[in-house]
Amino acid sequence: MTIETDDLRAAVSAGMLSETQAASLTKLADERRGYRAATAEIDEPFELFKGFNEIFIVVGLIILYTGWTAITGIAAFSGSNDNSTSFLLFGAMQLAVVAFMTAYFTLKRRMIAPSILLSIFCGLGAIQIGFALLQMAAGSDTMALSVVGGITALCLITYWYFFRIPFSLMLSGLAVFAFAIGLFTTDKATINNPSDLFLLSTGWSFSLITIGLGIGAFIIALRFDMSDPHRVTRRSTNAFWLHVLAAPAIVNSIALTLYSNATLVSFLALTAFLIFIALVAVIIDRRSFLMSGIGYMIALVFTVLDGSYGLVILLIGFGLVLLGSNWERLRCKLMNSLPEFRGKDKLPPWKTAQKD
Questions:
Q1: 57 and 172 part of one domain
Q2: pLDDT tens, residue by residue, 208-262
Q3: How large is the C-alpha radius of gyration of the chain?
Q4: Could you list the residue range(s) of the whole structural domain that residue 29 is in?
Q5: Which 8-state DSSP code applies to residue 41?
Q6: In a domain, 119, yes or no
Q7: Which of 109, 284, 327, 345 is 20 to 30 A (C-alpha) from 151?
Q8: 28 and 55 both lie in a single domain
Q9: CA atoms within a 13 Å half-sphere pointing along the CA-CB vector of 196
């Protein structure tokens, strides 16, 4: 008999083990299997699938959904001119089937990749219901984003509440973002360019909503992280996907605004901001938060150096590889050098990464 990660999570939830004990057992098991034979660092956990059987099931679900979409689409458009009722019915049926499949693949089989795909199917079904209700209510085009986004957000949040799939939490955040953008979209305030979602320098800017979403998602992600510093339970995975949502929203809003000004002062401010983001990523031990700033770092090099950028890009790549391979050691030194602050003891541990 083999004790798996889900068994340890259940033991922590039941109060039979502490998170520290579960983390120690996980580390011991990994070392015995050879996963950490060459290193004792604590990595940022990330899983998309557990085995090829999950990929096999995902392919089957995609084919199944494609067939379902074709059949329901033909049935809806071959009926009366008003097909909103059919779309509403088929959307509700889709959500019911998705919930049934999630109960099996997620709650019973504990599969990761099928759970992620089913979350997407849930969102697509909710979008279909939102458009059907909008059509039945004869709503205007300016209402579409807010109505569809609001209904999708409500469905996805409910879905996450019952099934606790971390990926669906990120989708919920995107739906909330669409709902908020839709509320402020009018004939006079429209999105003419994707950059309008990020540029803070415009008069009325949708980027305020973007950066607000990013800060909100970042705060919620930190709450999840601090409630599970050893990253044993599913709360840490919730935090991971929220960081994936928060990082582009925050980094793009500030970095793109500074980069678009194209002045020496703005470039210096952008450099300082990217260094700050890197420090934050190291402190909270989230490499995913740092990834959003790398693209701007490369763009800044191309813009400022004007042709003589090969060596600098080489140095940046070398620095990233060096940072990744010595992440925990560097984080340990940084955390030990920082003064005590509120919540520092609830961040992922770093003293255990110190090497003799």
A1: yes
A2: 889 999 999 999 999 998 888 888 788 888 999 999 899 888 888 888 888 778 7
A3: 23
A4: 1-38
A5: P
A6: yes
A7: 109
A8: no
A9: 12
